[in-house]
Amino acid sequence: MNIVRVALDLPLPRLFDYLAPDSDESDIGRRVTVPFGTASRTGVIIELVTASEHPDDKLKAVTAILRDMPALPAEWLALCEFCARYYQAPLGEVTSFALPPMLRRGKLPRVKKVAPAVAVPPASTPAAVHPPALPQLMPAQQAAVAAILDASGFHAMLLHGVTGSGKTEVYLRAIDAVLAKGGQALMLVPEIALTPQLEGRVAARFPGAHIVCANSGMADAARARGFIEALMGRARIVLGTRLAVFMPMPRLQLIIVDEEHDASFKQQDGLRYSARDVAVWRAHQLDIPIVLGSATPSLETFHHASTGRYKMLELPERAVAEAMPVVRIIDTRREKLQEGLSAALLAGLQQRLDRGEQSLVFLNRRGYAPVLACPPCGWISRCRRCAANLVLHLADRRLRCHHCGFEAPIPRACPDCGNVDLLPFGRGTQRLETMLAEHFPDARVLRIDRDSASTPKKWQALLATIHAGEADILVGTQMLAKGHDFPRLTLVGAVGADAALFAADFRAPERLFAQLMQVGGRSGRADLPGEVLIQTEYPDHPLYQALVEHDYVRFARAQLDERRIAGFPPFSFQAMLRAEARSMEQSLAFLAAAREAAAMLPNSLADGVTLYDPVPMRMQRLMTLERGQLLVESVSRPALQAFLAKWMEQLYALKMPGGLRWHLDVDPLEF
Ligand code: ADP
Ligand code: ZN
Ligand code: ZN
Predict the structure, then answer these.
(1) d(Cα 293, Cα 314) in Å, to the nearest integer?
(2) pLDDT score, position 160
(3) Which of 191, 227, 521, 522 could form a disulfide with 163 if both were Cys (CB 3.0 to 4.6 A apart)?
(4) CB 428 within 8 A of CB 367
(5) If one looks up domain 326-368+427-561 in CATH, what number appears?
(6) Using a 6 Å cutoff on CB, does residue 137 contact ligand 1?
(7) Do 139-315 and 326-368+427-561 share a fold?
(8) How far is the CA of 416 from the centre of ligand 2 (A)?
(9) Above 80 in pLDDT, residue 111?
């Protein structure tokens, strides 16, 4: 009796058996539609078995095995199985997530010719179609390329170099070699917004190669088509955001993760995976090299490179601009600021205006002001659904919750006391934009944040404006920090950065350093020297001092020392159990029960694993749900993994009050 074992997208950690009389081994990895309850579902065939734990006469038959595209290869299934195991998620949720939505639904895009046999494209000679002028590699680049090409089998490498040091050039050379051998290359980038320009650069370099993009912003059919082209080996280069790590690529020979430190590689909902970590596992499994590139590597990656687990490849110099920007710290303790801006920064801006150069003022907070307040009675604008303030947006005269999306018109008067003089407190990008426009009436001020660049089209239009030189002063959030060349930009001012120095999250300084380094790297890329001014009330803080010296390594070592003493990652491994319910009591009670359940596990499993007390999350209410968390920690990853697997079985069996939801986040990034 032929039985197929199917992964279905259900929150149950098991597979589902169906009769499939006409199935054979070649159907493993195919999509299949099956009856489930009263509905029909599409899943993926994981295994073929001859006997089921369920009596055969209880088994239903599959509706149809979809043989309209090549089966997903064993390597792809193994990747999904790893994610299911490592992130403690049902396999069906992983396979479903890893498939583009259209394929997940059992549909197929129109493709020119989807032959079941994988067509092997000729091993092209990319050199022949190259545009002639490739830059002569600098010695450090040469060494990095050689190290990547010499790596036979699995090697994880950290390519550490500041913006403009020629990392992308190194990637392109390595990809070139892979294409010449007939292989496929996968390149992951943090932001959708970055893919078009990178795609342009890659396409220009490899005009003969079929390049496919993969990101969540793409139309359904295009994404599904790209997936199938990668699966068939037709696509030679896959470029994409984190979800591209799941692209099936039968001849994958190289993985690149650019800006590997970027938090967007970690998905924060649903399947909470880290695409960077999954990519490293995949490279290991395929026995191929992986290059992690960054100017400010994550401390995890830097630690691996320092201890020799990863190979360290350094690009110490910029490829084009002669020098790094000069970083200066502006001590604002004894200065009366004008709308948050120091005299030094205002003078710097004026100077750039006079010279016809561009400036950027970086403030990582969008909106006009973080809160609207009524000073006489103490009312402040709060979200009804979240433990958060409503942010004042003057551009369209709304109050908005940045957590749940709730919005309301600005009240004419205080809802509590009727006072009509409500005051904005604090400062966001809109307020800075207004202030700069008033202070520099002749300047063209352009704001770039998620509000002004709410669609890819608007974002492209803003970039075009900047490139055309039609903006003098840019005001923006970290959106502006990433991967864009603005040749006339010579001054970067950072305001409001101090908040991150003392944040409760132990990763906040790491993120701040990366952001400031990155945003500073926007200045002075061409023949114009750049300058970075950082306003702070803590001018002696080691983080800022390291920035002045452009000394990532010093900063990283100091941070790692602190983490070692505190026992934080990478010196320990963590998982976070979170629960949300109508009341905090319910959430915390569930977490307490989860903790008690763990105490029932055999000592051999619980040994070396620490469970902390359940506590309310820092933002304890989101969308009317009260949220709690329970941190689990161990110095041994295998010990933590073994514990989590058993603990999950207990968690699935725990009684829950109606409306309670929970999830486990392995290697959580946010606290
Ligand atoms: P990164 O990715 O580190 O920011 P890029 O590879 O984009 O750096 O290089 C920055 C700029 O320098 C690009 O315009 C690139 O074409 C150029 N470049 C890179 N390597 C060289 C080189 N060896 N000689 C001349 N120009 C180079
Ligand atoms: Zn809200
Ligand atoms: Zn009031």
Answers:
(1) 10
(2) 98
(3) 521
(4) yes
(5) 3.40.50.300
(6) yes
(7) yes
(8) 20
(9) no
Tokens, residue 1 = 């009796």
pTM higher than 0.85, yes or no?
A: yes
Q: Return d(Cα 176, Cα 236) in angstroms, integer.
A: 10
For residue 252, which of 208, 219, 193, 212 has the smallest C-alpha distance? Answer: 212
Q: Using an 8 Å Cβ cutoff, are 15 and 65 in contact?
A: no
Average pLDDT of the residues in 358-377? 96
Question: Which of these, 187, 239, 190, 191, lies nearest to 212 by C-alpha position?
Answer: 239
Tell how far the Cα of 389 is from the centroid of ligand 3, in angstroms. 16
Sheet arrangement for strand 531-536 = 326-331, 531-536, 489-494, 358-362, 473-476, 445-448
- Of residues 194 and 469, which shows the higher confidence score? 469
Can you read off the two tokens belonging to residue 484?
Answer: 């864009």
Hey, which of 159, 320, 522 would you mutate to test ligand 1's pocket, going by the most ligand atoms within 8 Å of its Cβ?
320
The helix/strand/coil state of 446 is strand
Is the shortest distance between the CB of 316 and ligand 1 below 6 Å? Answer: no
Would residue 598 be called left, alpha or beta, if left means φ above 0 and alpha means ψ between -120 and 50 degrees? alpha
E runs forming strands in 412-571: 423-425, 445-448, 473-476, 489-494, 531-536
Mean pLDDT of the chain: 92
pLDDT at 119 over 90: no
How far is the centre of ligand 2, averaged over its atoms, from the C-alpha of 668 (Å)? 22
Does residue 167's CB lie within 6 angstroms of at least one atom of ligand 1?
yes
Closest ligand to C-alpha of residue 315 is 1
Whose Cα sits closest to atom 21 in ligand 1? 319
Residue 127 confidence (pLDDT) above 80:
no
Q: What is the CATH number of domain 3-71?
A: 3.40.1440.60
* DSSP classification of residue 137: P
Task: Report the alpha-carbon distance of residue 74 to residue 248 in Å, rounded.
Answer: 10
Query: Closest Cα to atom 27, ligand 1: which residue?
Result: 319
pLDDT digits (tens, 9 = 90+) for 7-18: 999 998 899 999
CB 199 within 8 A of CB 262: no
Domain boundaries defined on the chain: 3-71, 139-315, 326-368+427-561, 573-666
pLDDT at 58: 85
Q: 345 by DSSP, 3-state: which?
A: helix
- Nearest atom of ligand 1 to the alpha carbon of 169: 6
Query: Distance between alpha carbon 320 and the CA centroid of its chain, in Å?
Result: 29
Separation between Cα atoms, residue 241 and residue 98, nearest integer Å: 13
Give domain 573-666's CATH number out of 3.30.70.580, 1.10.3720.10, 3.30.70.600, 3.30.70.20.
3.30.70.600
* Whether 293 contacts 156, CB under 8 Å: no
